[in-house]
């Protein structure tokens, strides 16, 4: 150990002496696991000193590894510039890795890296033959073209959001907060108190489970599900796998043990529970679901197609439904006795109680076409997801 310690900067040696290591496994959108080694450093009083984002961890990793790796922030920058997408095939969602373009694993110049999926990476290992395989010059061309395309797309998105915001229009279908950001925040909290972070993780998980149940109508219009009942229901429906169901239970049991506080809880137990919570949360957020956003709200409704005979107490609401992939966004009008929908809000998928009351046929003036459109529907009663959790 002393030989290795000599290579590690003095400022980071404490990590090697007393660090606990753990493996955080996450599941991507295609259900594939990715494992990351994580260093923890814990004081006697249970304070978490090192964290997942610690640069010290990367330094220790460098000292051990035979290959020179990029500093974490540089690696992140390369990933972001390529939108975490392979620059050769450009297929979104594939697991990717950083590839040393010149094949020299000690060359840590950021310009020497390209983001490649595993298949395309294999192509770089093929040489000779009839022009098959990818050489370094080709990978550089692919990388530069893709990075430029990503930058242009980002500029377009920023312009688009800027335009809509300037026009006072809400942004519809804004993606929910990234799971990584949520988990980072919880783990930062763990540096102060692992117990507090555990309670925070519990709240995050509960919100996700209730939201998942509500967003696609799997909750049968009820919003009072306890997290335990909600996960049972999602499991019954086949939305949540056996293993995810189990990891949720393991986390809940861990939290209850901590909350009961009868026996002293070791720091390892706290960190293990946090680890299970992070895994469970990430897997839940990866479950494909429909999301419904209010595009037009509280539109007047008529019994005729000329706007003469107003129907009191009934309104049209136009919803944009997005996902699950790869279905493209689609807009549809519904009738509702609710008149307080906010444009841009993500709402649950819910109808008035059984038996459904059919409110149509009726007509409303469709804003984009400025034409009267017919709509017949039962009473739509979705509520903003932000009100559920
Ligand atoms: Zn690829």
Q: Please tell me what the overall shape is.
A: flat
Task: Please give the share of residues in helix.
Answer: 25-40%
Low-pLDDT runs of 5+ residues are 1-9, 11-68
In round numbers, the mean pLDDT is 75
Major pleated sheet: 4 strands, antiparallel
- Count every beta strand, where a strand is a DSSP E run of 2 or more residues: 10
Number of helix segments? 11
Share in β-strands = 15-25%
**How far apart are the first and last residues' alpha carbons, in Å?**
49 Å
Distinct small molecules bound, one entry per kind: zinc ion
Condensed summary:
With 389 residues, the protein is of the alpha+beta class. It folds into four domains: 4-53, no CATH class; 72-150, no CATH class; 179-285, no CATH class; 291-387, no CATH class. It has helices spanning 2-7, 13-18, 55-64, 72-81, 118-124, 136-166, 179-192, 194-215, 227-236, 242-260, 267-285; strands at 20-27, 33-40, 96-100, 113-117, 291-302, 310-322, 330-336, 346-347, 362-366, 371-375.
